[in-house]
Each structure stands twice: as C-alpha cells, then as structure tokens.
Design goal:
By secondary structure, the protein is of the alpha+beta class. Helix content is 35%, strand content 26%.
Length: 182
C-alpha cells in the first residue's frame, strides 16, 4: 500500500512544528548516547532555521496536512549542505526520509549545485548506511571555510564524544543521471 505524501517548501505554519520534530527524532539516539545526547535545547526553532541561507522542505501525509518531517539544506559559498534531516518517530519506516533527501537533491540540482554534502555518524545504523543507500559516498575533508566551520561546531557541541563523524557527498550536477537516479 502506497503511503500518502506531500513535500513542500516550509511555510510559516510549518515552522512551529520543526523543533518538536527534531527533538523527537533526536530521541532515537538515546539508545546509543544516553538521554538528551545533544542537550535539551539543541534543536533550533523553525524560524531560526528559515532565517539561514538555504531551503527547508517538509513532508506531510496529506496535501495540506501538518509536517511530520523536514530537511534543511544550507546554501553558502557555492555549497549545498544537508544540515538536518528529521522525521517524527511516529511516522518512521514510511519512506519520508528518503523522499525528503530526493527532494533536496532535486532542488539543489535545480539551483545549479554540483554536489550535496552532509556530515553523519559513521557507525549508527540509520545514519551513514541510510545516506549511502541514497547515493551519498564518504569523502575526505573539503578544505573550505564552510566545511572547516562545520567540524569546529561539531567539536564545540561535543558530537565527536558520541562516535566517528564522516563527510559524505552526492553528485547533484544539473543534467547528471546521478541526481535523477536515486
């Protein structure tokens, strides 16, 4: 049976739900990292995410339904970076995460980016393996102020205390078959 799904750019009413979606999704890490592994206030408000350069897409289970997940892509210095993907645990295993990733790839490609990067935990079952299934590959460090800044922020937040982090990328160049295949 097909799952009903609607993906759209986040609207003002959607923004109020993003923080709670992320907090609930972060709860999945408790099994590996303990309670509140990223801190009780680690999930930014939706309005704060919307104020950053890039785009926010949400998934709902009906055309005008409430957001049950989102993807946040930063666009800085010619880079498209998947900053956050979160689906509320009550709506997992329905393909929403993969659909959000594919929508982000489509938008990044339409905006003439050559690749979409992300940082992920290497050894958490639903992180790196999920993104690999979505066409991302682990790459070496990118020498750029933006990517160097991502690592610094992760260090400040203590993310390395919870496991190995990797940089991943997917080719999304306009017109490539890779951006359209996955």
């Amino acid at each position: 049976m097909a799952v009903a799904r609607s993906i759209r750019f986040a609207t003002a009413p959607d923004l109020a739900a993003l923080q709670e979606i992320e907090r609930a999704a972060d709860g999945l890490f408790e099994e590996f990292f303990g309670p509140e592994p990223f801190g009780a206030d680690s999930a930014p408000a939706g309005a704060d995410r919307a104020a950053e350069r890039g785009f926010l897409l949400v998934v709902a289970e009906s055309e005008d339904g409430p957001a049950v997940g989102f993807v946040h892509v930063l666009e800085l210095s010619g880079t498209a970076h998947l900053e956050q993907l979160a689906v509320h645990p009550d709506h997992l295993r329905r393909g929403h995460g993969r659909a959000l990733v594919e929508a982000a790839v489509t938008v990044a490609s339409a905006r003439n980016h050559e690749q979409l990067t992300l940082r992920s935990y290497a050894d958490i079952p639903w992180n790196r393996p999920f993104y690999e299934a979505c066409g991302f590959v682990v790459i070496g460090p990118i020498d750029s102020p933006f990517h160097d800044g991502l690592v610094r922020v992760e260090e400040e937040l203590g993310l390395f205390e919870h496991g190995r982090r990797v940089l991943m990328a997917r080719d999304v160049s306009p017109g490539t078959t890779d951006a359209a295949q996955h």
